């Protein structure tokens, strides 16, 4: 433990941010860096707890050994901190930027306490930003290099989907000596990381340098290849010893109201991926360009995807932006039935909310109207909640001008046609690919991980799932495995009562 009284001596200081008027004029990342001394102070706030909840099941899904690398940073041993961090996380520069940090919610320094005068003691350690700083330092110093396997097993694995789960699975499997080919239907490798998350949160060079590292290690990437469309998914079983499906949960939740068909109403991912392509130099025809410039924008959905749309609309020059959520506004502090170290169900604001826009809760959209086939107004009302169901409140009906409506209401499950249909995989009650405790699907030699089998979740969970499925596949192929299990998986409830083929 670097400084026993660090959590009292040093206040929590998040990473500095670029000024709002500056950052909304470009697409560069909004975060800046600490100076080295501040980084040491922040790491020194870690208590090195006897029972560190930060990397228990309620904290980090990856089981990151957080006290160890905090101590290394405090002792100015950044190279050792990177080794510790990489032992559980393939891509800490991703999670250090875009993870909501369940580790910090479980941090003992930040547990609610009402008997102390020290405000600093009630602020969790800045774990996420320390993680980012370690990874960025590793790239700057040249410590992160390709790590190809010394010996090849002769076994081959196809990974379908190049998001965080697919990338983690591919890197782990390749480093154990298997030949790995990753198939991606878009023109870019990285999945959600590359096309779904805006550049101001995750610049794409941060993703590409990991792709380059993996290629140098021997992973083969096949972009612009849609398995199940460009060729039958069963062909993979003829070519590879095992198949890993990590295609994500990409079936977006729609808005079944009159007027949904009007021009100017788009899924959030249509909007975000198009802008990411434009930022990469892709030219989009003006007839299909989704641009908020000078428009009145309404975002339906209060989560991270909605916030990403909000930040994107700011940078495109929207006249005004509203973000509506059907659920009630979360409380500012933990409720009595939401004790530490559970994930705190409280109001959260992103960098995009700091930049402007109006948020409102308990709002339902009843219909959309327009002229000449283009949306012009959104009609809605307030709702109250009765036994978990929203009920419109009489007399609260309203209409408002809307030139662009973005649907950011989450995702239902993976797309069922094409690949999943061809493989004839069993699905769970939510429409996700059903897997057993060893991440095997109902078809022999086919495994699945990430949002495709877990359902819509966090990037940190996707990486954890990718590491887990790699261990399971290696065990299946070789009979033994040197890959460590990720210490955080309960039996999935959707497996209960299922009869496996």
CATH homology superfamily of the largest domain: FAD/NAD(P)-binding domain
Order of strands side by side in the largest beta sheet?
A: 3-2-1-4-16
CATH topology of the largest domain: FAD/NAD(P)-binding domain
Strand content of the residues, in percent?
Answer: 15-25%
Rg from Cα: 23 Å
Helix content: 25-40%
Q: Span between N and C termini?
A: 51 Å
Form type: globular
- Rounded mean pLDDT score: 93
How many helical elements?
Answer: 18
CATH class of the largest domain: Alpha Beta
Derived structural class: alpha/beta
- Unreliable spans: 115-121
The number of domains is 3
Shape-level CATH architecture of the largest domain: 3-Layer(bba) Sandwich
Total strand segments? 16
């Amino acid at each position: 433990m670097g400084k026993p009284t660090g959590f009292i001596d040093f206040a929590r200081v998040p990473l500095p941010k670029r000024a709002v008027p500056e950052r909304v004029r470009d697409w560069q990342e909004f975060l800046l860096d600490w100076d080295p001394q501040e980084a040491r102070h922040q790491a020194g706030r870690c208590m090195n707890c006897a029972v560190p909840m930060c990397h228990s099941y309620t904290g980090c899904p990856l089981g990151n050994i957080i006290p160890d690398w905090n101590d290394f940073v405090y002792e100015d041993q950044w190279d050792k901190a990177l080794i510790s961090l990489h032992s559980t996380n393939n891509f800490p520069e991703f999670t250090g930027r875009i993870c909501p940090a369940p580790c910090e919610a479980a941090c003992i320094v930040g547990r609610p306490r009402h008997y102390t005068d020290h405000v600093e003691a009630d602020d969790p350690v800045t774990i996420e930003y320390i993680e980012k700083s370690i990874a960025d330092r590793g790239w700057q110093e040249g410590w992160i290099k390709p790590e190809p396997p010394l010996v090849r097993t002769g076994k081959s694995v196809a990974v379908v989907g190049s998001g965080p789960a697919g990338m983690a699975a591919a890197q782990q499997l390749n480093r154990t000596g298997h030949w790995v080919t990753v198939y991606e239907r878009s023109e870019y490798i990285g999945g959600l990381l590359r096309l779904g998350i805006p550049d101001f949160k995750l610049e794409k060079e941060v993703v590409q340098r990991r792709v380059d590292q993996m290629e140098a290690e021997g992973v083969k990437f096949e972009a612009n290849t849609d398995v199940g469309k460009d060729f039958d998914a069963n062909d993979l079983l003829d070519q590879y010893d095992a198949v890993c499906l990590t295609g994500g949960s990409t079936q977006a939740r729609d808005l079944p109201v009159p007027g949904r068909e009007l021009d100017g109403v788009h899924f959030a991912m249509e909007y975000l991926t198009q802008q990411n392509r434009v930022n990469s130099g892709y030219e989009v025809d003006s007839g299909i360009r989704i641009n908020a410039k000078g428009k009145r924008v309404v975002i339906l959905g209060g989560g991270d995807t909605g916030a990403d749309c909000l930040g994107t609309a700011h940078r495109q020059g929207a006249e005004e932006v509203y973000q509506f959520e059907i659920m009630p506004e979360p409380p500012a502090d933990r409720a009595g039935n939401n004790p530490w170290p559970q994930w705190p169900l409280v109001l959260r604001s992103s960098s995009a909310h700091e930049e402007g826009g109006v948020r409102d809760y308990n709002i339902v959209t009843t219909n959309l109207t327009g002229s000449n086939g283009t949306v012009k107004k959104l009609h809605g009302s307030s709702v109250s909640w009765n036994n978990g169901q929203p009920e419109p409140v009489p007399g609260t009906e309203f209409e408002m001008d809307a030139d662009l409506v973005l649907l950011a209401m989450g995702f239902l499950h993976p797309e069922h046609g094409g690949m999943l249909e061809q493989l004839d995989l069993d699905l769970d009650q939510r429409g996700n690919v059903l897997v057993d405790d060893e991440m095997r699907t109902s078809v022999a030699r086919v495994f699945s991980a990430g949002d495709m089998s877990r359902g819509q979740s966090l990037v940190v969970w996707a990486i954890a799932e990718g590491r887990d499925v790699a261990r399971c596949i290696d065990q299946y192929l070789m009979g033994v495995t040197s890959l460590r299990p990720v210490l955080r998986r309960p039996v999935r409830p959707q497996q209960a009562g299922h009869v496996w083929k």
